[in-house]
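Hi everyone, sorry if this is the wrong subforum. Our group has a chain we'd like a structural model of before ordering constructs, and none of us has done structure prediction before. Sequence below.
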Amino acid sequence: MAELLQQNECIIQLDTGDWEIKSIDLEQEEILGPVDYGWQRYQQDNRSFTFGSGLLQGASISGARRMVVTGYSPQWQGFYISSLGGAAYTLKHFGVNYFCLRGRAEAPSLLVLNYKDGEHRVEVVPFPEYSEAWKGYPNAEGEKVEGVFALQEAVFARYKDQYPPKQVRVFAVGPAAARTREGAIGSNTVDKGVITPTVEWCGRGGMGTRLFQEHNIVACIFGGEWDEFELTNSKEINDFFVEHFGEKAAKYDLSVTQKYRYHPKFKTGGTIGVNRHTNRDRLMTYNYKSLYASGEDRKQQHAEFIQSHFLKQFNEETIETKNFEACGEPCLVKCKKMHGKYKKDYEPYQSLGPQLGIFDQRAAELINDHVDAMGFDAIQTGGMLAWMIDCLADGAIPADEYGLPEPEGIKFDFAKSRKEHDLVEDGMRHSQYAMALVDALLWEPKAEVFRQGIMSAAYAMQEAHPEGNPLHKAVFLNHREEGYMVPNQYWVPGMGSPMPLMGKYYVYYGNDFMAPYALGQKNVERMVYELSTDNYGVCRFHRNWSETITDEILKAHYGLDIDFKAHHYKLAQEINEAEGNQATPWETDRMADLFEGYLDYWVEMGLEEPEFLEYVKMLKEDKKGAMYEFWQAIVDGQQAAFEAGPGLIPDALTDMQKEKLRRSA
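Answer:
Right subforum, don't worry. Here is the predicted structure as tokens:
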């Protein structure tokens, strides 16, 4: 099919330490990226754990070097995809596209990957000191760090001299991977032979838990001297951009990624800056209890708590000082917004910020850093903590029965917050309380039920304490019998959709109202394109160009005769057939209230679209019935789109891009 495309895989048998590197025959397996590879190996053996790079890993363009991880998610209970920013920029120096882990190491171990002196070296090395390292290890500045950060330092200190200083990196897990279903995989960038504070995460889905509990791997150090790469000619890349967009790659990429770098209209940048500026009356606080307030009250809280303090701090400390970093590859966007050692992103600083009643950067930094160090997914943990604090603060759950700290001084009431909440003092109190809950989640024997995740814990609490109705304060999505996910932090139905893979952005999450059947169809469209972005190994912040021209670049460079859109539609369809139709309707009162609040928002906006008005009418008669009808219509739209074929999916060329093409022509 394409003799120019040479791909290989490294299969590692962890129980024996045996390994082999094999070429991939494109005629036998249509593998065009790490998602394809992971899905194929998962179908052969659903206990496989894979990671790898996209075909643009050597390209002279920003944002094309994510390391993509796939495998079974112990949290979602199905196939899952996650990725680490910039890590493929280092992984490529091992000289292998994809890695497949099978079996279980006899003892907790390191995976050591190095290409040195013309040879590939793969070792599975017992590392019994991992748990001691989690307790604390000095970084390059002599500061004692913990958890994921400490384990990376310990591994790096032992092996760094065996690698070129610019071509080595570590990923690791923390205590959450050993003791919960929600362990993440963290990896800090390396600069000038030193691990930096800039950290990237395979966060959602509990893939760190899978790596540790299924395979007994606590960390991996990787890199080497391999230097034979494709697509390194910048003229080749620029020619494609000029042809499609009328501008060279760097200039066009910067123009379509300004949200993640700096947005001149809003005078802020990054996801935390732009989203914090714009969410206003869609602000979600105090475990979503802000939904019970009017839009005007939410605007007022946004103005007083966010605009005048939380966002103001961020803009003064990070945006005005231009404290921006990249994820470990030479990316022009530099989307990592830093303040000292703290990296600021919207969703972690939302779920571990306003959702916990924290509106001060100092307080938010502490809880975010602690959750990261312990190796939790920040979004999932924020949802769990917000629910726990909500229940504990109003007495729905007795703290002492589960070895949890008493909620003394915790203020968790939206209606009273603007009058009684001291942004600095109460924010710090909430942060310290949340950190104490994290420690109890990990180590307190009485708190075992909470280590099973928010869904299991919510049902158990409802059975034990029905008078407090704790289940119905929880917000989560269901998958299969025990799979679950806290939704991404956008107040839109798309983030509650019954898609086969949730917790990522494989849905439509625009703020505009979309009828549910059409939303379901749009979700499938977005899954196809987001899958392609992951399969290319491209950061989704660069999706405005990657969805449009990556297939053309790969076709021309490698001589491929492949319909990439049809290929990724088929991949989405296969995942849906195997993993889809496993969701159940939104079950809790808080989920129903979120749905009702979303419709109320559009009532306030004066929307008069007929199908919308029909749901508003149904809502007044039977809230849960209307919720179910809306949910089922999303399902129906999705299934219709999955069955219709790739012709239903429009080409990935936005109106803005079409206008640029028209002008340049």
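For your construct planning: DSSP finds 24 helices and 19 strands in the chain. Residues 295-319 form the longest helix (25 residues).
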